[in-house]
Amino acid sequence: MTIIQLEYFLAVANFGSFSIASEHCFVTQPSLSMQIKALEEELGVVLLDRSRKPVIPTEAGEVVLEQVRKTLGEFHSIKEVVKRFKGEISGKLCLGVIPTIAPYLLHKFLPEFVERYPKVDVEVREMKTADIIEALNRDQIDVAIVAGGTCGEGIVEQELFDDRFYAYVSPRNSLYNKSNVRIEDIDMNDLLLLSEGNCMRDQVIELCQAKHAIPSRYQFESGVLDTLMRIVDTTSLITIIPEMAIEYIPKEHSRQVKTLFKGASSRKIALASRRTYAKRSIVNALRTTIIGSRTKSKN
């Protein structure tokens, strides 16, 4: 049993394909297949169900896979420990970001991070929360910026900052002349929500204490907050926006932003990574840069 064999097995399990895994591992498909076959013969079990598309681990493969993730995490952490000892921050960082954060935060910290840590190659992907969780578990991304409390078991979240919710109200809506809006005063028929799959949609539904899907005059599916706000501008509707979006609202629409009169009307923004993740020094540097950029923007 070798580290190479374990890495090849993990790659196929992550990508569900021998061909994609071989490309990812920079090896020919026959070589990769041969190494995995040798691993199976040594263990005396079939690890992958090759009849399925995508390829999936067998029952025995799932058991082995859990140990492989831990083993490879510990193996790769050796290099990370040495880098920390030498004070070196380098490597590749694949960062996932949810759509309700990406347009308002990335540009504030990313240029500084790239300049401060030139030996880190950064790849950024905008993804929904469910896709981020799957990508983290499959080692397809290293870390993600998410709404706290949404990733579940096996993923560690490091809090970055609080992001309050505000109401964005049409001038034609009855709540427009109020400076503070109470949740219970919002007509749920007037509330525009993000499309399903966006965690902020679920957070808003929970905030409004709605037990079922919220009815609306508009059946509109969008994962972009700016689109919802433009619809509010031209109708009599209302939507909920995060604090980080407010500074990008034109002055002529600033009166449409209303404070929500409720204590727990915010979300926590966090960095998420797998519990066995090795690149701690890069993640810590990223966290420090993000928090620092927030402090600068407030001063």
Write the layout of secondary structure elements.
Elements: H1 3-15, H2 18-24, H3 29-43, E1 48-49, E2 56-57, H4 59-86, E3 91-97, H5 102-116, E4 120-126, H6 129-137, E5 143-147, E6 155-169, E7 180-181, E8 191-192, H7 199-207, H8 225-233, E9 238-242, E10 257-260, E11 266-274, H9 280-298
Parallel strand pairs: 3-4, 3-5, 7-10, 8-9
Antiparallel strand pairs: 1-2, 5-11, 6-9, 6-10, 6-11
Helix pairs in contact: 1-2, 1-3, 1-4, 2-3, 5-9
Word description of this protein:
With 299 residues, this protein is α/β, with parallel strands linked by helices. Helix content is 41%, strand content 20%. It has three domains: 3-84, Winged helix-like DNA-binding domain superfamily/Winged helix DNA-binding domain (Arc Repressor Mutant, subunit A), CATH 1.10.10.10; 87-161 and 267-298, D-Maltodextrin-Binding Protein, domain 2 (3-Layer(aba) Sandwich); 163-264, D-Maltodextrin-Binding Protein, domain 2, CATH 3.40.190.10. It is built from nine helices and eleven strands. Helix 5 links the parallel strand 3 and strand 4 (120-126). Helix 1 (3-15) packs across helix 2 (18-24), helix 1 (3-15) packs across helix 3 and helix 5 (102-116) crosses helix 9. The longest helix has 28 residues, at 59-86. It is elongated. The mean pLDDT is 87.
